[in-house]
């Protein structure tokens, strides 16, 4: 995504963060009110784990959006992309697993977790190099 202007990265990260945070609230409400009697307790817990990780990473992306206004570091941009992809893979696979009842989708979840770790590592490098 070399074509995105440095300030555009901040905008992209903030839009993604707001979308993820808002949809996390909606999904949490859906779990509490719509799924509570439809899913087993263990599947409901799995769904709620997806919601929690989505919200935490949405908040991290908001911080990244603010940071991107001061630095266009490639490590920072890579971290943003990894956090976005990690959220889709991790939380998305947990939602799909519980709603579709397909346990094999759970094999995608660890890939999302590794992507989160890569993202946090990129952010750590960006912080180390920040001047």
Write up what this structure looks like:
With 131 residues, the protein is an all-alpha fold. It has one domain (6-129). The chain has four helices and no strands. Helix 2 (41-68) runs antiparallel to helix 3 (74-100) and helix 3 runs antiparallel to helix 4 (109-129). The longest helix has 30 residues, at 6-35. The chain is elongated, with a radius of gyration of 16 Å. The mean pLDDT is 94.
**Rg calculated over all Cα atoms:** 16 Å
- State which percent range the strand residues make up: under 5%
Shape: elongated
**How many beta-strand elements?**
0
- Judged by helices, strands and strand pairing, the structural class is mainly alpha
Largest sheet: none
Specify the oligomeric state: single chain
Distance between the termini: 24 Å
Helix share bin: over 70%
Q: What average pLDDT do the residues reach?
A: 94
Tally of helical runs: 4
Element order: H for helix, E for strand: HHHH
Number of structural domains? 1
Low-confidence stretches: none
Please provide a brief summary of the model.
With 131 residues, this protein is mainly alpha-helical.
Short key terms for the protein model shown above:
mainly alpha; 0% strand; signal; 81% helix; 131 residues; 4 helices
